[in-house]
TrEMBL record:
Superkingdom of the source species: Bacteria
Protein name (Swiss-Prot/TrEMBL): MarR family transcriptional regulator
GO molecular function, one term: DNA-binding transcription factor activity
Annotated ranges, domain HTH marR-type: 21-69
Classification via Gene3D superfamilies: Winged helix-like DNA-binding domain superfamily/Winged helix DNA-binding domain
InterPro entries found in the cross-reference section: HTH_MarR-typ, WH-like_DNA-bd_sf, WH_DNA-bd_sf
């Protein structure tokens, strides 16, 4: 069963993912740098308010920069930003972005 963890023959009802909501928001923005927060929230499966808080965290951490263009925001990502956990601190988030935004037919998204 997809999404269900099994342990010793019994199924777990807890749901979890390998990537955090912060990673999912960053990836959603990488795929569509002019997306509205409502669209990002829908894609990630969080509230618009949660998406807004995550974007604020990512901006404060230097992972993205928000520019106002008319009535919308446009986001520029910083692929040189480092992962925050000590186990991955030697890696750049650009590695993650490349992994999840690459189109096999055309290569990495610019």
């Amino acid at each position: 069963m997809a999404g269900m963890a099994t342990t010793g023959g019994r199924e777990s009802t807890r749901s979890w993912t390998f990537l955090t909501n912060h990673a999912h928001v960053l990836l959603a923005i990488a795929r569509n740098p002019t997306a509205r927060l409502r669209e990002v929230a829908d894609e990630v499966g969080v509230t618009e308010r949660a998406a807004q808080a995550i974007v604020a965290d990512l901006e404060a951490g230097g992972y993205l920069h928000r520019t106002r263009v008319g009535r919308r925001n446009e986001y520029t990502l910083n692929p040189a930003g480092r992962f925050r956990h000590p186990a991955e601190a030697d890696r750049q988030v650009g590695d993650l972005l490349a992994l999840f935004t690459e189109d096999p037919a055309t290569g990495p998204t610019p």
